[in-house]
């Protein structure tokens, strides 16, 4: 099927759905996996949960080492083969995890899982959509991010169910089977193959250089990823520090996912015509508004904090796919996006530790740190302008 043929609404919706469900499975079977299995893995292997989660960090640490090369590969030869490779790598990593008998094999499995995340999470799916739809990729990107946000909402219950039925090793094998029996065949059959730069030698495009705008975007995304990783690990603890019981704190923290999915749905349905820079600026202020309410009103404002963090993070995830396109156009999109993501992938590894130290000093110090970073993010949006020839490039694509 030709690239032009993918522009009918029904086909575009089908591609968005397929890629989005692929993201749901990718995140559920990697990023959110050990949140359910971690304690069982530690008990079975007779090692400390702290060691298990330290080894789990390898999955995050390996990504910035691989993403630039993967981005170059996508730009040169297209994204579909990379998505298919990710399914195989995910399945291999999960199978290796299922047979792990010591911390060495566990570490190897988590490293391999990180490689799967570098190959198969948002960046690759977004690059496929940009190659297919150019400037019109904003709504499909939002749809994929919306479905990817279900990784925790669907992944945690499914993983827990499979663990109850088959044990933690069986749960890993179940996810491996999903990659091999569902995701890979559907991707192979229904995701269009996009042409890379080697097949489009005459396509215009500026080389990727670290100009001022690239630095601003990299700082913006690095701060966002730091806050997201810190909140994922410490938000319930933060609410406990403000007076909620652990059970109630966990329940309120669950509003983060509700807000993230809701705001992505709103972006998909009604807000897609809002300029990307404006929606990004709004997103950077959501967390500080919630944090301010928490600081002033205490525990009763915890839901506002959770909703602010979830809404802001949900919008920033969409901006990660859209802003490079808006500012630079589609040429070299995958490689540029990979470079912009690399600092964020590094700092998110340190986010839980640094935020935990701040929370140990004071809950006010913790929300002050995250709010200050959000204001830095807002500052990074200033002085940015859309690519001047963007409409011409897309008309010619």
Q: How big a fraction of the residues is strand?
A: under 5%
User: Helical content, roughly?
Assistant: over 70%
Order of helices and strands: HHHHHHHHHHHHHHHHH
What is the makeup of the main sheet?
none
Structural class call reads: mainly alpha
- Determine the oligomeric state from the structure: single chain
Uncertain residue ranges: 199-204, 391-397
- For the terminal residues, how far apart are their CA atoms? 16 Å
Radius of gyration: 20 Å
Shape: globular
Which features characterize this protein?
single chain, 397 residues, mainly alpha
Could you describe the 3D structure shown?
With about 400 residues, the chain is mainly α. The chain is built from 17 helices and no strands. Helix 13 (about 275-295) runs antiparallel to helix 16 (about 365-380). The longest helix has about 40 residues, at about 150-190. The protein is globular.
What is the topology?
Blueprint: H1 9-28, H2 34-45, H3 49-61, H4 63-77, H5 80-98, H6 103-120, H7 122-133, H8 138-148, H9 150-190, H10 212-241, H11 246-253, H12 255-269, H13 276-297, H14 302-328, H15 333-361, H16 363-380, H17 390-396
